[in-house]
Amino acid sequence: MPIIIEKTPLDETNEDFRRRLLNKEIHLVCEAANGLTALNAFACQVCEIDFKIIDEAVALVNNKKETGTLYPRASISIIPIERVLNNNYDQAGLNTPALQKCLEDVLVANEKYIHAKLIYFSLETFADRHLLIKNILRNLLDNQFNNPTYLEEIHFFA
Hints:
The chain has a single domain, classed as Leucine Aminopeptidase, subunit E, domain 1, CATH 3.40.220.10.
């Protein structure tokens, strides 16, 4: 059963992390947003993907309201913010079923295509909701993904 680790420091200059991301040993999950975001920092600067491709991916993910991935260019998945932050709010201020579907899509992509032992979540908008996300992931791992082939740890950037 994968271990969920909260609040791992984000350090985009960490050479070991950069190397492992480039070697697709890490599956990074980011919000579909441009600007000073983890998505832009890691996809453009570390993985050297042209910003135009990132911009198109962000637009596509948010327009379709479906989780997307930059794989095989990079082991980075993108969660559509607009789908999760729509008018069907629950007490946490989220559309929890939509968030659960996005997290499920991330686990499916990792199991079928990416095969990373580590998943790192960098979700700036949801930083105060890591416990909810952790609980959704634990539920998914206990039920639909109770014996993943590759995944060993899940981290949340602080």
